[in-house]
Amino acid sequence: MSDVVPDLRTIQIFYWTAALGSFSAAAKRLNTTQPAVSHRIAALERAFGLTLINRLPRSLSLTPKGHELMGYAERILRLHGEMVGAITAPASRSGSLRLGVSETIVHTWLTAFIDVMGRTYPGVAIDLAVDVSPAMREALLRRDLDLAFLVGPVTTPKLVNVSLGQFATAWIASPGLVTATGPIGLAELTRHPIITFPPNTTPYAQLRDLLIQADLPPPRLYTSASLSAIIRMAIEGTGIGAMPADAVLPEIERGQLRVLDASVGLPAVGFVAAYENAPDNRLSAAAAEIARSVATDWFAMKRDHGPP
C-alpha cells in the first residue's frame, strides 16, 4: 500500500459519518449528497486497504481501525479550526448563526451582544429564536440550533457550556397589589396567585420545592413561557411574579412594579452559552466567548450603578 494522505474534505466527511452514524445525516450536515459521502468513505477505505465502517442494515459502526482514525480526524479538524481562527480576519467570515435565546437575556443584554457580533462578524446573519431552556436544549441536541443562551449548565458531553452569570430571582408585584413595606412572609405572598415560568423549567421547579418545604396550602400558579406575558400580568395585578428582577428594571424604574421585601428568597438562576462539542464549530465557540464578555460587562455595569 502506498502512502495515503486523505484531503481535509474526506477527513471531515469521515468524521461526521462516524459521529452521526449515518451517511444521510453526514450528507445533510455537510450540504452534500448521500452518494457523495458513500463514495468518499469507500475511496478512503480502498486507499487504506481496510474497512473503517461496518455497514449494518439500520446503522453504521466503526471498526477498531475506524475508531483509531476517528481520534486523528477530530484532532486534525480542531487544529484546522484553530489555524483558520488565528489567521482569518473575522470580518471575512460569512454565513449564518442559528441562535436560541432565553427571554431573560432578551430583556437584558441581547442587543449589546448583537451589536458586538455585527461589528466583529459583519458577514454573519443571526437567525434568532426565543424559547424556554428545555426546548432549546433539545434543539441543540437535534442540531436545529448552533448556539443557545439558556439556563444551565447543560449536563451532557455533547455540548460545551460557557458561563454567562447568574440572575437573582425575586418576588415582584404591582405596587397596588401588595402595599406592605416590611418583610412579607411566604404565607402572605401565596394568598395571591404566583406567576412564573412553565413546569418544565428550572425556576418553576425551584419555586415548587420552596412551596413544598413550607407546608402551606397550594397557591394558585399561573405559568407562561413568555416573560413578556408574565411581566404584563404582574403589572396589571393578576398576581405576584417570581422572575429575574434584572429583566424588569425599566418597569421598576417607572413605578409599574416593585421588588417585594420577602422573608423567603428565591434561588438565583445561572445561564450559559451552549453549543455542540464539535471540532469545526468555530463560529459558535467565538460567539459564545463574545456573549461571555458582553454578559460580564453588563453585570459589572449593573453593580457599578446599583439597584434602581
In summary, what is this structure?
With 308 residues, the protein is of the alpha/beta class. It has helices spanning 8-20, 23-29, 34-48, 64-87, 103-106, 110-120, 133-141, 186-189, 202-214, 227-235, 249-253, 282-305; strands at 53-55, 60-62, 94-101, 123-130, 147-151, 159-167, 169-173, 194-196, 221-223, 240-244, 258-259, 269-276. The chain has a 5-stranded mixed sheet, sandwiched between helices. A 5-stranded mixed sheet has the order 9-8-10-7-11, with helices on both faces. The protein has a two-stranded antiparallel sheet with strand order 1-2.
What keywords describe this structure?
308 residues, alpha/beta, Arc Repressor Mutant, subunit A, D-Maltodextrin-Binding Protein, domain 2, 12 helices
Descriptive account of the structure:
The chain is 45% helix and 20% strand. It is an alpha/beta fold. It has 3 domains: 8-87, Orthogonal Bundle (Arc Repressor Mutant, subunit A); 90-167 and 270-305, D-Maltodextrin-Binding Protein, domain 2; 169-267, 3-Layer(aba) Sandwich (D-Maltodextrin-Binding Protein, domain 2). It has 12 helices and 12 strands. The protein has a 5-stranded mixed beta sheet with strand order 4-3-5-12-6, sandwiched between helices. Strands 9-8-10-7-11 form a 5-stranded mixed beta sheet, with helices on both faces. Helix 1 packs across helix 2 (23-29), helix 1 (8-20) packs across helix 3 (34-48) and helix 1 crosses helix 4 (64-87). The chain has helices at residues 8-20, 23-29, 34-48, 64-87, 103-106, 110-120, 133-141, 186-189, 202-214, 227-235, 249-253, 282-305, and strands at 53-55, 60-62, 94-101, 123-130, 147-151, 159-167, 169-173, 194-196, 221-223, 240-244, 258-259, 269-276.
